[in-house]
Amino acid sequence: MIGWLVLGAALVLGLPAAAYLAQDRMLFLPHLAVAPPGASGPPRPVEEIAFATPDGPRLRGWLAPSRASPAPLVVYYGGNAENVVGQAFEPWPGDWSLALVNYRGYGASEGQPSEPALYADAELVFDALARRPDVDPARIVLAGRSLGTGVATYVAARRPVRGVVLISPYDSMVALARHHYPFLPVRLLLRHRFDSIARAPTISAPLLAIVGERDSVVPLARSRRLYDAWGGPKHWVALPGADHDTLGREQEFWEPIRAFLEALRAG
Fold this sequence. Notes:
Distance between the termini: 72 Å
Order of helices and strands: HEEEEHEHEHHHEHEH
CATH architecture: 3-Layer(aba) Sandwich
Number of domains: 1
Radius of gyration: 19 Å
Structural class: alpha/beta
Strand content: 15-25%
Number of helices: 8
Helix content: 25-40%
Number of strands: 8
Strand order of the largest sheet: 1-2-4-3-5-6-7-8
């Protein structure tokens, strides 16, 4: 009997402890590959960009400049297993410049990722890009996917932006983790909370939210809660049959993005 009690106590205490220690590896999955397999190069020219952070790590990525100057700019924040320079191979509108800077530890960027580091780095990169003479600082749009929607929402709450595109957004990492791990005391364990729902009501920039109706990672209820709390004008696009990892491959995925960006550019 005592043995079973000891085993039960070990499970009760050991599982949360293991989850606490493993959360960085579960949330941040650095991806190092630069281009999709078989890709010969981006369809538009890119230049390498780099940023020095106050604590030492150097952030690296690409800028795909528009033909116009100063040009409107999309700043993209990727998912937890994404090397964002791969977005240079996707059909983003060519009349917008596209900034693709990897998080710490992702791609060629140095350092170790964390929620505070991603926030601080995103502000640093945003400010540096807004100062470029070939960028129109009044027409900067933030685009985030999955994990990156938390970073995009944070920056949008602290910097003037023309609009925000959120792909598979969530209301908070605590709520999302509680959905997937209902048997764990998530609120006590989670260090990286990405509490977008607390920031959304303060943001007046227009929002385009794109979700997959069969998303098995971010349930629609988590996305919808953030969308409903958004303080600015907003548009919801739900793609039938799309899951978390197939959303960007759907035929209907890019048209709402093009229309949203065109309206912001013209306006």
